[in-house]
TrEMBL record:
Keywords: Cytoplasm, Phosphate transport, Transport. Plays a role in the regulation of phosphate uptake. GO terms for biological process: intracellular phosphate ion homeostasis; negative regulation of phosphate metabolic process; phosphate ion transport. InterPro entries: PhoU, PhoU-like_sf, PhoU_dom. Belongs to the PhoU family. It comes from the Bacteria. The lineage of its organism: Bacteria, Pseudomonadati, Pseudomonadota, Gammaproteobacteria, Cellvibrionales. The gene is phoU. This is Phosphate-specific transport system accessory protein PhoU. Pfam families: PhoU. It comes from Kineobactrum sediminis. PANTHER family: PHOSPHATE-SPECIFIC TRANSPORT SYSTEM ACCESSORY PROTEIN PHOU (PTHR42930). The keyword Glycoprotein does not apply.
């Protein structure tokens, strides 16, 4: 595991400021994990009350992104960090954007949960939702854990899990489209499940991005767009 050292600065306040933005990001990450868990639970349990709570709480995620981003900008302006310190600030700034978008996707799932709970009987696709949701929730948790521990190896391992999520999403998409063709009466309701599945697939993409930010932080290498060869250069 790669270790970074952010405790070697002359200024104790600088150390505290770096630690604060990381801590704020992880607090935001915890809230986003809860949002995703609750959105999926609301969909599977047809719990419109919980779904509305998820929609309401999304504003808190947005406010956290704005606050942390402002703190990152202020830190850059005041301290003019370089090397790993600058990578830390930039990695936090990029990660909170992905976390905010995961919050957006959770809100979309919650909205689908409200619609589906009002339509009555559960349509097809809930097994796929449960399975894919389990995978993306693990990806999100593991991506944040890798960032916390500055573990680029764990980040790379978690990043690769997105390929399986994509395969499962495409398989579910084919199966549900076939079902709708066989039973056109189901189209409206099953489409809402498909939108929820699409949001879950996007959560996996954002968790993958967080892993890429962690590799950038630890290794100083940009591996976006599949550029893992950068690690060997």
């Amino acid at each position: 595991m790669d270790k970074l050292h952010f405790d070697q600065h002359i200024s104790r306040h600088f150390n505290e400021e770096l630690e604060l933005i990381k801590s704020q990001m992880l607090t935001m990450g915890g809230k986003v994990e809860t949002q995703l868990d609750d959105a999926v639970a609301a969909l599977l349990d047809a719990d419109s009350g919980l779904a509305r709570d998820v929609v309401f709480r999304e504003e808190e995620i947005d406010a956290l992104e704005v606050q942390i981003d402002e703190d990152c900008t202020t830190l850059i302006a005041r301290r003019q960090p370089a090397a790993s310190d600058l990578r830390m600030v930039m990695a936090v700034s990029k990660t909170i954007r992905d976390l905010e978008r995961i919050g957006d996707e959770s809100k979309k799932i919650a909205k689908m949960a409200i619609i589906l709970s009002e339509e009555g009987d559960a349509p097809r696709g809930y097994i796929e939702v449960r399975h894919i949701a389990s995978g993306v929730r693990k990806m999100l948790h593991d991506s944040l854990d890798a960032f916390t521990r500055y573990d680029s190896d764990a980040a790379l391992k978690t990043l690769k899990a997105d390929d399986q999520i994509d395969l499962e999403y495409k398989s579910a998409l084919r199966e549900l489209i076939t079902y709708m063709m066989e039973d056109p009466r189901s189209i409206s309701r099953v489409m809402n499940v498909l939108w929820a599945l699409r949001s879950l697939e996007r959560v996996g993409d954002h968790a993958k991005n967080i892993c890429e930010h962690t590799v950038y932080l630890v290794k100083g290498k940009d591996i976006r767009h599949g550029n893992t060869e950068a690690l060997d250069s």
